Request: fold
Amino acid sequence: MPVAWTTVAGTAAAVCTTLAFIPQFFSLGRQGNKELSPAMLALYLGGQGLWLTYGIMIGSGPIMVANGVSLILVSAVTFRRLSADRARGRRLRIAIDMDEVMADSVTEHLRRYNRAFGASITAAHLEGRHLEELVPPEQRKVVEAMYDASFFAALDVMPGCLEIVRDLASRHDVLIVTAAMDVPCSFDAKFQWLQRHFPFIPASNIVFCGDKGIVEADYLIDDRARHFTRFKGSPLLFSAPHNLNETRYPRVSSWREVRDYFAARESERETVRTHSRRLDDRKTAVPEC
Reply:
């Protein structure tokens, strides 16, 4: 084959592969594209970088130019892809603890203890500590044994929780994450309680675990600060008598405050989306002749 034709073929191939991402760049600017795989973009960028390195090593101008331009274009598409994702905003993943957050376990525990020992302890007596820490040492095993299957079946829903969790679940991915390994006999009772009171939460979104650090979510609403230690998202401490002295984490004292907290986050996200859309509109606007 004559050298001229090989040059033409090579140049045409370089032009096509170099310019292939230009339509995608403008498509992302107009409407975004979550189908464009980040992994594919990363591999493509890696390949273009290696081709550029190879061109430099052998001193080939066409290879260096073609792959250098491709690297710039694909980098621009990748940046536009990430910007489009941020502007569009994805659904938040909100993990919610069950005991003392969704379910009023303190009231039931005090009721059982007072009935068993003829006492009159109230939630006000538990400030900064759990019931097990308040009672005489000889009663602690009995108090811990009160956490049987019937205990969890009888819990009341915290005020406002049902309506607000339902509302959050309509706009975000809500996970129920409970440390059931602390009380192994509670698995079935907790699941039945959730099915009875929160039937709109699918079973696939209910997580029974020991360490909540294994859960990937944007937020964790929990009454026990120890669960925030390895959690990678944002913690939100739900007020309970035992944690009133905890000052390390943002706090909500009721489900109304939870609603207001996420309403504020959503307003911030909408402001960012609106700003990003305006920037995109300015970038893609065609100037009048």
User: Anything to note?
Assistant: The longest strand covers residues 173-178. Confidence is low (pLDDT under 50) at residues 28-34. The first helix runs from residue 3 to 19.
